[in-house]
């Protein structure tokens, strides 16, 4: 266990292992997303109430899952960085934050587009949409704070603290927004029973969710590798790597 | 045997104790110093209150002077305006201490920084949150806030602004080392303010409609309890980062 943690401290080791892992995740992401898209868009049955417009779910739900998971990952990597000073954790957090913000935006945008055929409007102050919007603001705060510091070490630690504060607040925000929504607005529309979704609709969704996660891992590995090269560019092993490439 | 044991532990405890009081003295000194400093810079105490009054004046001008319409939106307006006033005062919470180096002295003391920071936040609430809460009923009167909700408005603001000060102090501590931290501070802190706003404004709404006011106030109290436990630790960690950056 300790040997493993000590290995994680070495960016060089991570650079090597991620090179071997990366193709597998890219392949999984490609296969799953292509399968899920074709199955979801062409073969899954249309919803009896929403017709074909429900198919937005195959982008909306995976993006929303990732949006929330990535914020939790930011907090976990932040904690790992603050406690064990593992630099890889912070490099991963640096590259994950913009992806998380992008996924939150995708979830919001697809939700808005979905709102047009179902609610008849681009935006509703629906509890889920509102929590997602707040999550987007939290992401933007973490990214902006990291960019505001001149010293990289301070930026990393400040962003870690903010991510941890944010992750404690996310459940509180979520429940208070739910409470607020039930108090202020009658339920004009509820997405027809998500748990009662038939198997042939639900399976492509599961495949898409898994595909999005594989994509997230693959992209994070790839971008962490570039971040390693950037931050360690004055180390000997990186220079040797560059000479080999030339 | 036991008598000598007792004497021994007592001796050790005396030797291990800090000279002259320790923690209580340090917290008390911080409280007294911050209170005195803020009372001498009166404009810093008055500015959020004036801001609160001006913002509330803008709404009837911008929307409509119709009392019925204003009464419907008054709880939310009062809460949002008070929240923004509290936010504006945050930037100066650690700024002067950072500039003149007394924040570094605070870090060097043997007492836990979290508790000293808590003392500073308490002074901030006493001179910003509490006056805002006391002033809100007057402005509520001008917005034709329905009778029976004035006490709830003041109590919810007093309770809620304590949480706002604690959460906001984390953002203030994170941005105190940055030369242009003002807008960033609001970007960091406002999303975290939303639960307090929901239950604060909700308490006033509940008072108007005759619902369970106590439930809202209880949740505001619970949020404050949570903030009291976690925020000082985050503030202390953030101050350390800002001093080193």
Rg calc of chain A: 21 Å
What does the radius of gyration of chain B come to? Answer: 21 Å
Helix content bin of chain A = over 70%
Low-confidence parts of chain A, pLDDT < 50 over ≥5 residues? 186-195
The proportion of residues in beta strands of chain B is under 5%
Percent range of helical residues of chain B: over 70%
Mean pLDDT of chain B: 87
Q: Which structural category fits the helices and strands of chain A?
A: mainly alpha
Largest sheet of chain B: none
Listing every helix as H and every strand as E from the N terminus to the C terminus, the arrangement of chain A reads: HHHHHHHH
Estimate the strand proportion of chain A.
under 5%
List the chains of the largest interface with their residue counts: A-B, 31 and 28 residues
Instruction: Give the termini distance of chain B in whole angstroms.
Output: 55 Å
Termini Cα gap of chain A: 38 Å
Most strands sheet of chain A: none
The backbone outline of chain B, from C-alpha atoms, is elongated
How do the SSEs of chain B run, as a string of H and E?
A: HHHHHHHHHH
Structure description:
The complex is a heterodimer of chains A (246) and B (245). With 246 residues, chain A is mainly α. Chain A has one domain (23-188, 196-241): Four Helix Bundle (Hemerythrin (Met), subunit A) (Up-down Bundle), CATH 1.20.120. Helix content of chain A is 81%, strand content 0%. In chain A, helix 4 (87-119) runs antiparallel to helix 5, helix 4 packs antiparallel against helix 7 (199-231) and helix 5 (127-148) packs antiparallel against helix 6 (152-184). Chain A starts with a helix and ends with a helix. The relative contact order of chain A is 0.17. Chain B is built from ten helices and no strands. The longest helix of chain B is centred in the C-terminal third of the chain and has 32 residues, at 213-244. In chain B, 86% of the residues lie in helices and 0% in strands. Chain B has one domain. Chain A binds chain B through residues 82, 134, 137-138, 140-141, 144-145, 148-151, 153-155, 157-158, 161-162, 164-166, 168-169, 172-173, 176-177, 179-180, 183, and chain B through 170, 174-175, 177-178, 181, 184, 187-188, 190-192, 194-195, 198-199, 202, 205, 223, 226, 230, 234, 237-238, 241-242, 244-245.
């Amino acid at each position: 266990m300790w040997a493993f943690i000590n290995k994680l401290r070495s960016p060089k080791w991570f650079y090597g292992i991620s090179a071997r892992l990366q193709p597998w995740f890219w392949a999984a992401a490609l296969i799953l997303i292509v399968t899920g898209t074709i199955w979801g868009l062409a073969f899954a049955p249309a919803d009896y109430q929403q017709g074909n417009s429900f198919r937005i779910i195959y982008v909306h739900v995976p993006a929303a899952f990732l949006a929330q998971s990535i914020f939790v990952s930011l907090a976990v990597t932040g904690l790992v960085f603050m406690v064990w000073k593992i630099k890889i954790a912070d490099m991963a957090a640096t590259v994950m934050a913009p992806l998380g913000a992008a996924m939150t935006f995708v979830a919001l945008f697809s939700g808005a587009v979905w709102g047009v055929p179902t609610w008849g409007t681009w935006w509703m102050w629906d509890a889920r949409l509102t929590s997602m919007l707040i999550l987007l603001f939290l992401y933007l705060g973490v990214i902006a704070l990291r960019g505001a510091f001149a010293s990289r070490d301070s930026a990393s630690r400040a962003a870690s603290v903010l991510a941890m504060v944010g992750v404690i607040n996310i459940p509180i925000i979520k429940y208070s927004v739910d409470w607020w929504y039930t108090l202020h607005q009658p339920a004009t529309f509820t997405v027809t029973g998500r748990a009662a979704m038939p198997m042939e609709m639900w399976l492509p969704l599961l495949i898409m969710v898994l595909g999005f996660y594989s994509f997230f891992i693959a992209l994070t590995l790839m971008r962490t590798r570039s971040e390693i090269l950037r931050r360690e560019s004055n180390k000997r092993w990186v220079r040797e790597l560059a000479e080999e490439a030339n | 045997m036991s008598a000598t044991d007792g004497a021994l532990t007592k001796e050790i405890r005396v030797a291990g104790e800090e000279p002259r009081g320790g923690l209580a003295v340090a917290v008390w000194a911080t409280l007294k110093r911050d209170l005195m400093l803020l009372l001498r810079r009166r404009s810093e105490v008055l500015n959020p209150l004036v801001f609160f009054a001006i913002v509330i004046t803008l709404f009837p001008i911008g929307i409509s002077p119709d009392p019925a319409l204003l009464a419907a939106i008054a709880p939310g307006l009062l809460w949002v305006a008070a929240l923004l006033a509290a936010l504006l005062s945050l930037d100066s919470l650690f700024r002067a201490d950072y500039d003149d180096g007394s924040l570094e002295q605070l870090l060097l003391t043997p007492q836990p920084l979290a508790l000293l920071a808590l003392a500073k936040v308490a002074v901030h609430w006493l001179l910003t949150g509490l006056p805002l809460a006391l002033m809100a009923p007057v402005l509520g009167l001008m917005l034709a806030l329905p009778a029976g909700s004035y006490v709830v408005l003041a109590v919810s603001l007093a309770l809620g602004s304590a949480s706002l000060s604690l959460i906001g102090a984390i953002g203030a501590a994170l941005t105190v080392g940055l030369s242009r931290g003002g807008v960033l501070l609001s970007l960091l802190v406002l999303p975290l303010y939303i639960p307090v706003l929901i239950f604060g404004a909700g308490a006033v709404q509940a008072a108007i409609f005759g619902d369970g006011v106590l439930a809202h106030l209880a949740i505001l109290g619970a949020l404050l309890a949570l903030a009291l436990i976690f925020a000082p630790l985050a503030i202390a960690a953030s101050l350390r980062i800002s001093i080193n950056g």
